[in-house]
Design a protein that fits this description.
The complex is a heterodimer of chains A (104) and B (178). With 104 residues, chain A is mostly helical. In chain A, a hairpin with a 2-residue loop joins strand 1 and strand 2. Chain A is globular and about 35 Å long. Chain B is 33% helix and 15% strand. Chain B is built from 6 helices and 5 strands. Chain B has a 5-stranded parallel β-sheet with strand order 4-3-2-1-5. The termini of chain B are far apart. The chains are: A mainly alpha (104), B alpha/beta (178). The interface between A and B is medium-sized, with 35 and 29 residues.
Chain lengths: 104, 178
């Protein structure tokens, strides 16, 4: 398994670079992960990321873009603005979760 | 709080630059409920991957963007021998498909299965695609044949264009005909 060093700490990551253990995540780490992909976290970003964390905790899987939009009440358009181009994957990465499996 | 990594940090390659060139064109030519979904699902997936996506609605596919019909697409398994009741491997008898009321029943069944998976109905799905930056185009010939105008179509449709306009616009795109 690959590891990577973020802010002086070593973390296990999968072959794509996503964290493998959701438990090691903290909001500070989320901020660092966001920076690595060029995102400066704001309250709007946090609203989405905190929903991902909560929902993953309850459902046991990463919510899809549609689920984030309908359940957290954030319009899809806004998610694309906050996490450009690949919002579902980028949100999962920042939240320290696996990328979503669902199709829609 | 700056990252103080001394070695290179392994970050997923989200390929922001590379996927900028990829383009997908999907021609939606069917108006049956089951055949509306493949194009919508693939368009939505492509947009989520940062791919520029264009959908061209033509012939029966017009029912997907016609405000009067988009909510009422139907599903019949007439001519589709792969139709099994959910959870079963035996085919439904073709003769039954044509009975009065059967299409309404199978439509209801399919809609429930789609909703159970939290997949939106056609108008909502188009909205999501539009919000994700997808481009929706209506076929000029079909509009003329069906005597429909822009005001009859879903608001997210950018225009009624000819087949050559669409071909020109999707230069270099990967193309799907559904």
């Amino acid at each position: 398994m690959a590891t990577t060093t973020i802010a002086g700490q070593t973390y296990d990551v999968n072959e794509e670079g996503f964290l493998t253990d959701p438990q090691v995540w903290t909001e500070e780490l989320g901020t660092e992960l966001a920076k690595l992909i060029g995102i400066e976290m704001t309250d709007a970003h946090w609203k989405a990321i905190r929903f991902l964390r909560e929902d993953h905790g309850v459902m046991g899987e990463t919510p899809t873009l549609r689920r984030v939009s309908t359940q957290a009440g954030i319009p899809v358009k806004e998610l694309f603005a906050l996490f450009p181009k690949k919002p579902a994957k980028k949100m999962a990465y920042v939240a320290g979760l696996p990328k979503p499996k669902g199709c829609v | 709080m700056t990252a103080t990594t001394t070695e290179t940090t392994f970050v997923p390659s989200f390929d922001d630059e590379d996927s900028g060139d990829r383009k997908l064109a999907i021609i939606c030519s069917k108006g049956n409920l089951d055949m509306a979904y493949p194009g919508l699902i693939l368009a939505n997936a492509a947009l989520g991957e940062g791919v520029e996506t264009h959908l061209f609605f033509t012939f029966w596919g017009f029912d997907m963007i016609n405000k009067k019909t988009m909510e009422h697409l139907k599903f019949s398994y007439l001519g589709n021998t792969a139709m099994h009741p959910p959870g079963s491997s035996s085919s439904m008898p073709q003769g039954l498909a044509g009975l009065p009321g059967m299409t309404a029943m199978t439509t209801k069944m399919l809609k429930k299965q789609i909703a159970d998976l939290d997949i939106p109905e056609v108008p909502d799905f188009l909205e999501q695609i539009y919000e994700s930056g997808g481009h929706l185009w209506a076929c000029r010939l079909s509009a003329d044949m069906m005597k429909l105008h822009e005001e009859d179509l879903y608001e997210g449709v950018e225009g009624i264009i000819s087949a050559s306009d669409f071909i020109e616009m999707t230069d270099g795109a990967q193309l799907l005909f559904i």
